[in-house]
Amino acid sequence: MGSGDGNLYVLQTSNGVLVWRYHTNTPVYLGATLDTRAAVVYVCIGLMLYELGASTGQLLRNFQVSQQCQ
């Protein structure tokens, strides 16, 4: 499990906002999805990005990233 989660990477926009893309190619801001219909929040600690249910706080998935995220 987790072998398909490696192609997750980080982009930085001109205004300094970090944007994540993961294997579904959905861009997400650090902390929340861009898609307001999605009840998912992303939290990054160290080298791990955690995908949580926004309403429950339940861990849905986590990803190891190649560089530290703040």
Cross-sheet strand order for the largest sheet: 1-2-3-4
> Beta fraction of the residues?
over 45%
Give the biggest sheet: 4 strands, antiparallel
- Write down the overall mean pLDDT: 61
Helix-strand topology string: EEEEEE
Rounded Rg: 11 Å
Number of helices: 0
Oligomer: single chain
Number of strands: 6
Helix content: under 10%
Shape, principal axes of CA atoms: elongated
Distance between the amino and carboxyl termini: 26 Å
Query: Which spans of ≥5 residues are poorly predicted at pLDDT below 50?
Result: 1-7
Structural domain tally: 1
The SS-based structural class is: mainly beta
Q: Summary?
A:
0% of the residues lie in helices and 54% in strands. The chain has strands at residues 9-12, 18-21, 27-29, 32-33, 40-53, 59-69.
Question: Can you tell me about this structure?
Answer:
A hairpin with a 5-residue loop joins strand 1 and strand 2. The chain is elongated and about 30 Å long. It is built from no helices and 6 strands.
SSE blueprint and pairings:
Elements: E1 9-12, E2 18-21, E3 27-29, E4 32-33, E5 40-53, E6 59-69
Antiparallel strand pairs: 1-2, 2-3, 3-4, 5-6
List its salient traits:
6 strands, mainly beta, two-stranded antiparallel sheet, 70 residues
